[in-house]
Amino acid sequence: MPRSLIHFLKPQASEQKKRIQRELDHLDGLVVLSEEWAEFYQQLTITPIEIIENAVIVPDKPSYNSRATEIITLGRLGKRKGSYDILHMAKQIEAEFPDIHFTLFGDGEIEEVEQEMEALASQNVSLGGWLLKEEREKVMASTVLHLLPSYQEGLPMSILETMAEGIPNLASDVGGIPQVIQDNQNGMMVKPGDITEMTEKLRAFLNDKKLREEFSSAAYKKSKSRFFT
């Protein structure tokens, strides 16, 4: 849940809450991305709420390479997105999986993330900046896993886009993510901030080619059946 809404629910924000409720009640309708957000707003307003999930273009067949060695994350960098947790997880598997490389694409807390990388002496992590459209196909073809261990989320496009390519995800069970990822079926889910669990699941994933392929097939099928546009 966004920080602004967490503040909004605090007792001292009651007057602000009443004002926002009045504004919401005057709407003809409210569109949200997931069931979790619908449940949240249903507590605040009498306005009808409709869920319209994000959609992605799904290719005719996935391009997933189960032998790929790149692990990526797409979106903003920062604590809320679990970026620092990724750095610590990457450090823990660095010696065990020397061929695996992590690239964090996006903007946000670039300097802070770089400082943490220096403190950890990370050798298997790099920052990729914004992923340009012309680079997307090449990056996806070399990606074995997408990470999004966020502390707060809605229904992230990055998860839908990677699943459409048959790329499995390791993500936290927040927001609308559990509607898309079924743990140990088409991907992996963990509690936010649980670096130990993330690392254990990543190890199992990297050590099992058949598991990677099963997750990939299930992720693509899920995307094709529910989020196709």
TrEMBL record:
It comes from the Bacteria. InterPro entries: Glyco_trans_1. CDD domains: GT4_PimA-like. Residues 66-221 form the Glycosyl transferase family domain. Pfam families: Glycos_transf_1 (PF00534). This is Glycosytransferase.
